[in-house]
Structures are given as C-alpha cells and as structure tokens.
Fold this sequence. Notes:
15 strands, mainly beta, six-stranded antiparallel beta sheet, single chain
Amino acid sequence: MSIRLFNNSGGYIDLESGGTSAAANVFTLPAETGTILTSATLSGINASALSAGTLAAARLPAGSVLQVIQGSTNTETIIASTTFADTSLSASITPTSSNSKILIFINQLYNISRTANAQFGGIRLLRGSTVITNPAVDAGGPYDFGGAFGSTTSFNFYGRITVVYLDSPSTTSSTTYKTQGAIYYTSNFGTSKYQPSGSSYNGTSYITLMEIAA
C-alpha cells in the first residue's frame, strides 16, 4: 500500500511501507515546522544544537586529540648502575585506531650526586620493552640532564628532565610507555635518583600520553 501526495506543480511524493510483516508500522510526525533533513542538509546543522550523541573518531580531522592519559609517581628510585632500570614512571593507553600517533610528554624529577670527579646520568623512553629514544651519549656513557655535571670534589644536582616524542605504535591494544635511567662511571660511586625524597626538591614526575588522529 502507498499514499501519493501531489503538489501544486503536478509533481508528487509516494509514501510506501517497506515492511513485510503484518505488524503495524507507525510513523509519527513531530509537532514542528521545518525541513526534513537529507544528506545535502546535514552539513548545515549547527553543532551547538547537538546536546547528545558521540561523533565517531573516524570523522575527526587529522591532528585531532582523541584521548589524553596521564601517569605520575613520587616514588623515589635510586639507580647506581650503567645498566638501565625502570624509574617508576609509566602510563598505558589503548589507541582507538592503528593509524593513530601517540604524543608523549615527560617531566621527570631527578637528582645526581657524586663525592668526587664527574658523573653522568640519563633516561630513555620505552614502548613496552622496545627502546624508542635514547639519551645523548658522551664518551660511551648516557646522560640527558642538559649536559654533563660534575666537579673535582663533590656535587649534588637537582633538576627536571623534559622529553617530547611522537610515536607510531600501529596497534589498538593497550600500550605502556615508561622511562628507564642509568649512570656512567660506576667506579666514581655516583648515583642518580628519580623523584628524590627527603630533600627540599622532592616532588612528582609526570608522563602524559595524547592520542592524535592520523
């Protein structure tokens, strides 16, 4: 069954039921005056009129921020070895698309000390167990504290390491990013501390992960 509506110019619109069952199909018209939306008129909708619903990530332009995750720690971690070890700073994110990129910001508090001569220290960034950035290298030893710090007697230096890195994990699985630290010149008995406690410079380290649409 169909209903034909004629207009003044001689044209018409047929309303036909697409149902195949014997059940009643009810189409209720709202008590409003306006124009029925079509694919041509959807682009003219004012976004401020949308009070509910979710815009699919696939419809967002490249460079859009899809989600933000932040991890933090104030757990003191002492590393006195040339072998890299975890600094207690990490965060995990589950990308919504395998094409997404992850923008990583690290702000990590550290302390490096030495009783005599020079000492170096540094961090590196990992995705899971894969190293994706290494600190600068001087004479075979890692350091990433804005340069080399040391003296012929003793020193005790505090500061914050800042790292910004854009990664392409190519996955929609949960992905963990973390930092590891190490020192150089173990014979000099130096140490590097991350999130050092018991000092006037103690505090919290942060890692922020932002998923960016491709």
